[in-house]
């Protein structure tokens, strides 16, 4: 058994996935996971059902103490890392604890982006990224009659529906005319908006927040949102008790930056998830590869698999074992992923390109009454994108066809009807 020690800063999805991929027979004598949260790892993907009251914290906590013990993993909660000493290879926490490492993984994740507008630092303004955010919303529910969610991307839509499920009034503001405009087009947006309106959510698109106003400034408690309808340049006001920002994320790179590790928008890594410093790796929402940062699960899963194999190969002391795990072709590459949104009453899957251009041909099917919309984009008779709303049964098949890159000429007549018809 090797005497190497692995330290992981962060205890979110990326960190947990690496631990799962490393398995019980990993090459480290001990793994120390440092978390700034007070609770064990939980599945952040399930924050929306947690907010909606559809699940519990225990139900979204995947591993027990025995799981960690069998893998020689120690988790340290409420450990705020102050700095990384790359010369002595130590992680120093604000409470005074020091953790020596042979390998270090930065899985520090991201935080909600909050626009720099007046009033954004008020006590009833939150993001939607962590259990802490959900707890804050739960604490305020008894005093809330109206909540405003700013940003109608994936998380914004989920936050709005989660809050609405508690019986309070919810307004969803979005700067773009199209909801979830990074994953779908105007037609799909209209179907989603119809479903949200049916749920009693007030949807307002093409709106830019200008100012969060308070009538009791000393308490920094927002009462009114001032926003502008971009198309008509009309300013309006909206009374509210809670403001939730879901307007994007910022990579938590500051710790790495202060240690002299190269950073751009995130912590820069190569195709093996290595940073600019020896023995230090990064993955997930805190990292940047070839100018790209990440907010979806699928690429992070791939990064975790690659990093786990890299660690096995790099730190395995048994030479024969190292040779058996060597695989120079296993490296991270950018590729299209399947994005899923599930709100009760509507399923949306988005893959690759969803807006046509001069080089693409579009096949589409729309049944507004049934709430079904399918759109497939072809280039040179090969799928380059697909959008499925309402009926997502064949989205994985479309994804496989796109990944394979084969011609779908023979399937064209029935492609929109799915694999069973083809």
Description of the structure:
23% of the residues lie in helices and 28% in strands. It is globular and about 65 Å long. The longest helix has 19 residues, at 297-315. The protein is an alpha/beta fold. It has a five-stranded parallel beta sheet with strand order 3-2-1-7-19. It has ten helices and 25 strands. The protein has three domains: 5-111 and 249-325, FAD/NAD(P)-binding domain (3-Layer(bba) Sandwich), CATH 3.50.50.60; 125-245, FAD/NAD(P)-binding domain; 338-421, FAD/NAD-linked reductase, C-terminal dimerisation domain (Enolase-like, domain 1), CATH 3.30.390. A hairpin with a 4-residue loop joins strand 14 (224-229) and strand 15 (234-239).
How would you summarize this macromolecular structure in one to three sentences?
This protein has 422 residues and is α/β, with parallel strands linked by helices. The protein has helices at 13-22, 47-51, 65-70, 131-140, 154-164, 186-198, 254-258, 297-315, 319-325, 395-404; strands at residues 5-9, 30-34, 73-76, 81-85, 90-93, 98-100, 103-106, 110-112, 125-126, 146-150, 169-174, 201-205, 207-213, 224-229, 234-239, 242-245, 249-251, 267-268, 280-282, 287-288, 338-343, 346-352, 361-367, 372-379, 382-389.
């Amino acid at each position: 058994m090797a005497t190497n020690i692995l330290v992981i800063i962060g205890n979110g999805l990326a960190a947990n996935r690496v631990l799962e991929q490393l398995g019980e027979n990993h090459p480290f004598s001990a793994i120390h996971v440092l978390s700034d949260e007070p609770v064990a790892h939980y599945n952040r993907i399930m924050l929306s059902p947690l907010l909606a009251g559809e699940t519990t914290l225990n139900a979204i906590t995947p591993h027990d103490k025995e799981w960690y013990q069998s893998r020689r993993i120690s988790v340290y909660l409420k450990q705020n890392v102050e700095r990384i000493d790359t010369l002595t290879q130590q992680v120093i926490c604000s409470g005074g604890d020091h953790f020596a490492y042979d390998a270090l993984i930065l899985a520090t994740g991201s935080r909600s982006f909050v626009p720099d507008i007046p009033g954004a630092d008020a006590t009833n303004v939150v993001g939607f990224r962590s259990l802490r955010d959900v707890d804050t919303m739960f604490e305020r529910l008894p005093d809330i009659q109206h909540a405003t969610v700013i940003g109608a991307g994936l998380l914004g839509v989920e936050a709005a529906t989660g809050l609405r499920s508690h019986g309070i009034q919810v307004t969803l503001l979005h700067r773009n005319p199209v909801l979830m405009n990074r994953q779908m087009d105007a037609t799909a947006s209209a179907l989603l908006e119809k479903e949200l309106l049916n749920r009693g959510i007030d949807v307002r698109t093409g709106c830019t927040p200008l100012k969060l106003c308070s009538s009791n400034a000393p308490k920094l408690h927002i009462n009114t949102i001032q926003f502008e309808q971009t198309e008509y340049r009309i300013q309006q006001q909206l009374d509210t008790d809670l403001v939730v920002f879901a307007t994007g994320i910022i990579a938590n790179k500051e710790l790495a930056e202060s240690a002299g590790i190269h950073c751009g928008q995130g912590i820069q890594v190569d195709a093996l998830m290595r940073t600019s410093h020896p023995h230090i790796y990064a993955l997930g929402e805190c990292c940047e590869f070839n100018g790209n940062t990440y907010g979806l699960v699928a690429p992070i899963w791939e990064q975790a698999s690659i990093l786990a194999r890299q660690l096995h190969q790099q730190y395995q002391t048994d030479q024969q074992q190292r040779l058996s795990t060597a695989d120079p072709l296993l490296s991270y590459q950018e590729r299209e992923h399947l994005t899923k949104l599930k709100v009760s009453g509507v399923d949306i899957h988005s893959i690759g390109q969803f807006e046509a251009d001069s080089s693409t041909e579009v096949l589409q099917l729309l049944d507004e009454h049934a709430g079904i919309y399918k759109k497939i984009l072809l280039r040179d008779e090969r799928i380059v994108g697909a959008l499925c709303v309402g009926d997502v049964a064949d989205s994985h098949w479309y994804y496989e066809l796109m990944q394979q890159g084969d011609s779908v000429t023979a399937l064209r007549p029935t492609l929109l009807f799915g694999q069973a018809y083809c």
